[in-house]
Specification:
The complex is a heterotrimer of chains A (323), B (312) and C (325). Helices cover 77% and strands 0% of the residues of chain A. Chain A starts with a helix and ends with a helix. The longest helix of chain A has 38 residues. The relative contact order of chain A is 0.13. Chain B is built from 13 helices and two strands, in the order ββααααααααααααα. In chain B, strand 1 and strand 2 form a beta hairpin. The radius of gyration of chain B is 24 Å and the shape is elongated. In chain C, the strands form two sheets. An eight-stranded mixed β-sheet of chain C has the order 6-7-8-3-9-10-12-11, with helices on both faces. Chain C has a four-stranded antiparallel β-sheet with strand order 2-1-4-5, with helices on one face. In chain C, helix 5 crosses helix 6 and helix 6 packs parallel to helix 7. The longest helix of chain C has 18 residues. Chain C is globular. The chains are: A mainly alpha (323), B mainly alpha (312), C alpha/beta (325). Chains in contact: A-B, A-C, B-C.
Amino acid sequence: MRYLTRRIGLFLVTLWAALTVNFIIPRVMPGNEATAVLGTFRNVNPAALHALEIQFGVNVHQNVLVSYLEYLRNCLTGQFGVTAQGVPVMSEIMSKLPWTLGLVGVTTVIAFVIGTVAGVASAWWRGGRMDAILPPTLFIVSSIPVFFVGLLLIYVFAVRLDWLPLGSNYSIGATPSFSISFIWDVLKHALLPALSLVIVTAGLWVYSMRNNMITTIAEDYVKTGRAKGLADRRIMFDYAGRNAILPNLTGFAMQLGYVLGGAIVIEYLFSYPGLGYLFYTASTEHDLPLMQGLFLVYTLAVLICVLIADLLTAVLDPRTREA
Amino acid sequence: MTTDASASEISVSDGTSTVEVKRPPGRFLRVVLRNRKATAGAVILLVMVFVAAFPGLIAPYDPQATRFPPNLLPSSAHLLGTTQIGQDVLSQLIWSTRLTLVVTLVVSVIATFLSMIVGVTAAYAGGITDRVLTLVIDVFLILPVLPLLILLAAYLPPGVSSLIIVLCITSWAFQARQLRSQGLSIRNRDFLVAARVRGERPLYIILVEIVPTMTSLLAASFLGLAVYVVGFAASLQFLGLGNSGELMWGTMLYNAQQAAALEAGNPWWALAPGAAVALLGAGFALLNYAFDEIGNPALRPVKRRRRARASA
Amino acid sequence: MPEPLLDVADLTVDYLTDAADVRAVDRVSFTVGPGEFLGIVGESGCGKSTLLFGVAQLLSPPGEVTGGQVVFRGQDMVRLGREELRHIRWRDYSVVMQSAMNALNPMKSIGAQFKDTLEAHGSMSAGEIRQRSVEVLKLVGIDAAHLKSYPHQLSGGMRQRAMIAMALLYTPQLVIMDEPTSALDVVAQRSLMSKIKDLQRDLGFAIIFVTHDMSVVSRYSDRVLVMYAGQIAEAARTDAMFERPLHPYSRGLLNAFPSVRGPRRELVGIPGAPPDLARPPSGCRFAPRCSEVMPACLTRAPELFAVGDAEVRCLLYAEDVKKAV
């Protein structure tokens, strides 16, 4: 129980820290970027504009602390201001969220499965061919920046071979629906972006899973399992695998931040209109409110996943229940 | 994660029973050379350093000169073709090595140093300081890096110094936990107690007594960090941030992407700097992987040798 | 003389590493009869645990059996196929490891760990499994309610007893124990050892017991093997060895342990350290530390000489040397 309260505490503190970061940055960074940006806002809902002024410290003649508290209150009531076009930040984000959620969600699950199985297998059959080739290859592949993987895939599959489309999330002129042809279209467009992400993420995960597996296999209780005459596969998964994954579930969730960052680059590369692409266009247009809203959403996503991982660990690992 | 690799004794074990094997000191270099990954990584990095130091020797043309016909495909005159405004891609690639490498090294050194200060201070001070610092580290570790980088970069003027600043801010926490653990494990060793009794100031103790014992961990941290810095720096510039015309691979990538080089039939303009970034990252990664193996023998490749079994 | 339960002949275990090949166990031979309690003693690093795992076929890379035979109930386990070996594991012989905290799976309850053993070797119904689990727990004095407990919830002594209970699930004929009492305090040690001895008396299994604690060996074992630097230094019946140790090393070991009841005397340790097994010396391995070393010891590696019922690896007992001296 204490374990869980600690993790929930960390969740809340980090959330608060992200909100505070958004408040501090405009005030700490040199120059008057914020003033310039807010000055370009026209035809904006006055309440939203006021909220932004408080957040960025523009045209506000109050004590900083008062501004801070008002800002926090705005956040808790969902008032995140508007984008340069006057659209509420959160609704803009929500409209693009599903595409990124789909892309990253599916990618992470696939990478996790591949990574776990490959990591466990290569550690179990140490000295086999798989172990000699797979870990170093994947480790190196995962250290290649994701945009390069994307570039290569685009070049090979989209430009030279022309098998897959070049960008966007569905073909121009197609109308969204739940028909098979549209879904197929969407999948075709998502394949290369997803593949880029899977390659890099799975690589990272295989490496750490393999190393943890190797350490776990050396543990005495695995030896006891062998001594008891348990079947190999039973030992591999039930004694070694499970014990190797669990402590790292939280670490895996924390890597999500890296995956989300990679998704931003990939969405830019493939012109895939999700949150990442939104972040990119916001940065080129210096749409600070939108950028800060997005930063918050990204942080929240990572935090939620970490919390879920912590919960799972608490449920599955009996040792945490005592602590 | 890693132990002092220059130890002259190693324990061979299968997890339960151990046998001591003594090695003469000074074989570290030979161990590194024997490890293929370490050698490959070192070679890559040495080549990069050479190209960065003497670009004039290798590059065929002035990288900024725009006198060549634009969008040429690779030929004997231009091994990697030319850009949209008529610059030789190969020369640009070579001359960009220096700044890219310098930025990577500067950020990695600063971030490792910060990591170490915070981690070791947390370990050494203990108590409330430790709790607070650990909390700060944890928070920074969770904050997603690229979004934070983009956000910070939006406020700063474009350029290399901004790039370095934002990268340091987001990378310092990366290795802090490992360094803190190492600090914790040696906190109560005799030589530190002796230093305290002598009345040395904490900063002295940290810098002069503790840090030298962590050299191999610091080296490993530096390498691990460098892999990420290379990728993040290039990604950030690829998205158009932190650029102001300096010659770096990331800038080349940005320009190539803006000119839609891949589709326009001039792929090498985009692929070459990308490959260079990947290669540099791989070099650091190989060394890092090898360091892990050297420090932790359990991770080393296992030789399955079939010996003829002697009969009774 | 009845057929030995276990006949180990010239067993050799090597660690094959990049740096060097280390021979951790060098042509060790011994037998264990049914119901016998064999103690194996030696200092850390002498190879006794490696020997144990070599016998039990539980070595992991880079350790490997590179020579010799381990004939258990007529079958050479070294050459047995994987499936056949798996079949006899735990049913005919079981293993108790040093630290139950490490040897028991921290994520499974005690009952679950008993269950997967029983399920691995045959089909028992859930009721039968539970019944047998409760039975073995009772043998070691643990309440059946603890089937639901996790290892970290039990005390150190209880954990070791749970491990022993698990080892007796199939009432095997041989139980191999690797320093099961080292992790316990003296009182718990004593209680555990007498429990083990009681169980042995009731159920009739043989025990191979590895330890560095001479007092345990002296009190409970029938025969004892003294190991040094991967070889057997002395093998004898326990009472004989403790009364009159033959090998200088055995004498040194006994001198280093105080006796609670005997006369007060000065404790003498054995100076020096064991040899580097990557480069074993020519000649006797104990020579550098031996108080009775002779010139021949430095060049001639002694083999095991028979002295009455015992065996000693020492040139003091070589026929030709004895005559010369």
